[in-house]
Amino acid sequence: MPTEIVVLGGAIVVALIVLILVFKAVWRVAEPNEALIISGLGAHTKNELADSLGFKIVTGKGTAVLPGFQNARRLRLDSRAANLQVSCVTQQGIPVQVRGVVIYKVGDDFASIANAARRFLDQQDSMNGAIHELFTGHLRSIIGNLTVEDLILNRERLTSETRSSAADEMSKLGLVVDSLQIQEIDDETGYITNLGKPHAAKIAASARIAEAQRDQEATEAEQVAAANKAAAWRDAQIKQASYQAEIDEAQARSRQAGPLSEASARQEVVVQETRAAELEAQLAEQRLQSQVRKPADAKAYETVTLSQAERDARIAQAEAEARETELRAVAQASQVKQAAAADAESVRVRGEAAAAATRATGLAEAEASQARGLAEAEAAKARGLAEAEAIRARSQALAENQEAVIAQQLAENWPQIVEAGAKAFGNVDHMVVLNGAQGVEEMLAKALTLGGAGLGLARSLLSGGAAGNGAPASVNGAEPKSLSES
Question: What helix, strand, coil percent values describe the chain, rounded to 5?
Answer without folding.
Answer: 70, 10, 15
